[in-house]
Structure formats: C-alpha cells, structure tokens
Design goal:
This protein is mainly beta. It has a single domain, classed as SpoA-like (Surface presentation of antigens (SPOA)), CATH 2.30.330. The protein is built from 2 helices and 4 strands; from the N terminus they run H-E-H-E-E-E. A 4-stranded antiparallel beta sheet has the order 1-2-3-4, with no helix packed on it. Strand 2 and strand 3 form a beta hairpin. The radius of gyration is 17 Å and the shape is elongated.
C-alpha cells in the first residue's frame, strides 16, 4: 500500500465511498410510492457489519454505531491491498 508521502499530491481528489447498509427486494408499486420522508425498514441494527467500497473495490469493513441522534459507521478493518 502506498504511503501518504507517496500519494500526498492526490490528497484533495474526491472519492465516492459507498457503505451498503442493507439490500433487499421492494415491489415496484412500493418504489413508485416513495417520496421525501419515506422510511424504508432495515433488517440491520447498531453493531451490524457493513461493507465499505471505493468504486467497486472493497476497502474496509465497518459497523453501525449510534451517533448523536443519527447513525454512523465505525471502520473495524481495512482490507489488504490487492
């Protein structure tokens, strides 16, 4: 893995990080009824493990944590470089 000194010039490049909370099936009629403020029930709760990806590459694992009235993700393991 490259050190920060080696890639420091890339430090300001924005990267999209995807954290997959849940995955499931939802009937099309339910999708069509979604609007701002709709709540989708998740089968996951605090302490559950999550996959953290940058692009399509798995970079870390995390867990759901309560955070001042919201939910956050604590990184629990960073994957080894390929």
């Amino acid at each position: 893995m490259a050190s920060l000194a080696q890639v420091g010039h890339l430090g300001a490049v924005p990267l999209t990080i995807d954290v997959s909370l849940d995955c499931g099936l939802l009937p099309a009629e339910c999708v069509l009824e979604l609007k701002a403020g709709s709540v989708l029930r998740s089968l996951r709760s605090a302490g559950d493990n999550l996959d953290i990806r940058i692009g399509n590459k798995m970079v870390a694992y995390g867990e759901i944590v309560p955070l001042e009235g919201a939910m956050g993700v604590r990184i629990t393991h960073i994957t080894e470089p390929v």
